[in-house]
């Protein structure tokens, strides 16, 4: 099973031009089973390069063999036209369930900027069994909001693990209640907007008491002695000031032994972030 996570920066490359076809070409070469994308835009002509097209539709059309799940976390209407911005997941594997979560956005007087943030969860029939694949893009400007989002993700993870432990099918219930088994086993990925030395990172991987499966940084599983490859700050983009890691894969501990590789694809300049790849046996 191969999962790719990528903040595509609405397809805007270092020359300020939008080339969604370049994003699509890179993804096709990587040949993932599940694609997790952040910063997908629709009808946002004011964004650098003019992101006026519906990128959710373009990406879904380019990967016709995949089931698309979209989550525009920001939706603003102008002349009755929705301007959308957010996350997207596409899966070759059959999807059994989809859950979309709006993450906390507490008021922060020290950081009035920002936007709503969300989390997509898809339960997929992977070759090794059902697994939850989740992708997100956390707050950049406000540490207060970002920490609240990390803590809510940890709560949602505990909730899923506890529901998996208690699950009993009940055919007598009406169909909306028949969601089926939703496993604790999970892959979390995306642009977390924190660095490996940050308190947010430590909060996410800190073990919890109770039934939640511990989350493990997949990079550390495969490269424990190697400096982390940067996922942003390459190819001369204005942001960030220096190359660093903002994008991650975290897996539940029961999947740790099945992680065969985690890589950052540093060659492409199609976005200000680099795609990251997770391979699981």
Automatic annotation (TrEMBL):
InterPro entries linked to this entry: Endo/exonu/phosph_ase_sf (IPR036691), Endo/exonuclease/phosphatase (IPR005135), GPI-anchor_lipid_remodeler (IPR051916)
Domain Endonuclease/exonuclease/phosphatase: 4-273
SUPFAM superfamilies per the UniProt record, alphabetical: DNase I-like
Pfam families: Exo_endo_phos (PF03372)
Coiled-coil ranges (or none): none
Name assigned to this protein: Endonuclease/exonuclease/phosphatase domain-containing protein
Organism from which the protein derives: Massilia mucilaginosa
């Amino acid at each position: 099973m191969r999962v790719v996570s990528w903040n595509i920066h609405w397809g805007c490359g270092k020359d300020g031009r939008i080339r969604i076809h370049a994003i699509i070409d890179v993804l096709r070469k990587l040949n993932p089973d599940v694609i997790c994308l952040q910063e997908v835009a629709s009808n946002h002509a004011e964004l650098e390069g003019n992101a006026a097209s519906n990128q959710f539709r373009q990406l879904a059309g380019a990967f016709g063999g995949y089931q698309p799940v979209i989550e525009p976390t920001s939706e603003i209407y102008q002349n009755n036209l929705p301007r959308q911005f957010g996350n997207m997941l596409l899966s070759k594997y059959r999807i059994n369930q989809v859950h979309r979560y709006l993450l906390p956005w507490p008021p922060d007087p020290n950081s009035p900027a920002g936007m709503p943030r969300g989390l997509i969860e898809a339960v997929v029939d992977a070759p090794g069994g059902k697994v939850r694949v989740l992708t997100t893009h956390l707050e950049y400007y406000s540490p207060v909001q970002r920490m609240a989002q990390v803590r809510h993700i940890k709560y949602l993870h505990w909730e899923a693990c506890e529901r998996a432990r208690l699950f009993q099918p009940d055919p007598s219930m009406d169909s909306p209640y028949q969601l089926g088994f939703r496993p604790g086993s999970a892959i979390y990925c995306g642009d977390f907007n924190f660095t490996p030395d940050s308190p947010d990172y430590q909060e996410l991987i800190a073990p919890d008491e109770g039934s939640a499966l511990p989350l493990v940084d997949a990079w550390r599983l495969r490269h424990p002695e190697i400096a982390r490859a940067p996922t942003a700050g390459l190819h001369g983009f204005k942001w960030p000031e220096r190359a660093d890691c903002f994008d991650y894969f975290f897996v539940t501990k029961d999947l740790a032994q099945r992680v065969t590789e985690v890589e950052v694809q540093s060659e492409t300049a199609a976005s200000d972030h680099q795609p990251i790849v997770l391979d699981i046996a």
